[in-house]
Design a protein that fits this description.
The chain is mainly beta. The chain has one domain: Metal Binding Protein, Guanine Nucleotide Exchange Factor, Chain A, CATH 2.170.150. About 10% of the residues lie in helices and about 35% in strands. The protein is built from two helices and ten strands, in the order βββαβββββββα. The protein has helices spanning about 30-35, 130-140; strands at about 1-5, 15, 20-25, 40-45, 50, 55-60, 65-70, 75-80, 85-90, 100-105. Strands 6-7-8-9-4-3-10 form a seven-stranded mixed beta sheet. A three-stranded antiparallel beta sheet has the order 1-2-5, with no helix packed on it.
Length: about 140
């Protein structure tokens, strides 16, 4: 089944043939630094199964791998080893990331346990936080998707 995605500004878009909804969380220090986060949710696919409407820019993040991103808005899109026929698409870049389910952790030596199970924390909706609602309505007349 095909899944679409892209960057925040829409400059870089892709269509990927996705066989399963299995994904994983990477906690390695390189992914933490590249994403500015404690982990990075990824979906592994074959490079040949990704069609780019416009290719991302690339950063050689190490001698063995590169990361795809949008130079216009900064969205992180991919991770791939130079010598592999696979690549990882960043789950958050899919148009419907909710379909993917994490099946394992990678780079567990750098896993921050406090950020894994947050089910007991209070939850707040953006559309119910009046200062943000007011900013959006004043700026654009509507709330973002």
């Amino acid at each position: 089944m095909d899944a679409t995605g892209g960057c925040m500004c829409g400059k870089v878009r892709y269509v990927a043939a996705v066989a399963t909804d299995d994904a994983y969380l990477c906690h390695c220090r390189m992914c933490q630094r590249a994403s500015g986060n404690v982990s990075l949710a990824m979906k592994n696919v074959k490079k040949a199964d990704v069609r780019w409407e416009r290719e991302p820019d690339y950063y050689a993040s190490s001698p063995i791998a590169r990361r795809g991103f949008c130079a216009a808005c900064g969205t992180s899109l991919t991770f791939e080893y130079h010598d592999s026929d696979q690549l990882d698409l960043i789950v958050g870049s899919f148009d419907d990331p909710s379909r993917f389910v994490p099946k394992h952790h990678f780079g567990a030596e750098n896993l921050h346990r406090a950020w894994i199970d947050t089910s007991g924390l209070p939850e707040y909706r953006v559309d119910q936080y009046q200062p943000i609602v007011d900013r959006w309505l004043k700026s654009t007349g509507k709330l973002p998707e």
